[in-house]
Specification:
Layout (H helix, E strand, L loop, with lengths): L11 H13 L4 H14 L4 H8 L3 H14 L18 H12 L53
Helix pairs in contact: 1-2, 2-3, 2-4, 3-4
Amino acid sequence: MAEPVRVRRLTDQEGQRLQQIVRRGSTSSVRYRRSMMLLASSGGNRVPVIAQLVQADEDTVREVVHRFNEIGLACLDPQWAGGRPRLLSTHHEDFVAQTATTRPTKLGQPFTRWSWIPRTPSTATPASSAPPSPSRHRPTTPPTSKSRWPDRVL
């Protein structure tokens, strides 16, 4: 069986900093919970007890203790990474920002202001060809004897 996971001996500065984080509680919840794990481990508690104390998984407690033993107090800060890849490069962002701050007439466009849907002559539709809006009208056909409400007058 492997040795129980324990935090290395804390220096005075590390102990004071961890106690300060736990006592104040004004920091992020991640830093607070990780500080609690480390203080509980330095007090001699085992991993299952610490996991119950901070309501975390035992593997999470082990990871925090191992990371503290490797890199010290830097383990308190979460190192989240990943996520969705960028769709625009910084070059494209600069181009979009420059275009958005330039008047359309300077760029040869026939309108004076940018909008979300620019209306150029090629994309504009005349009002007469616009589809009719849906209206709420009753049907003009007279009710039949098989209709659902034969006594209803339309």
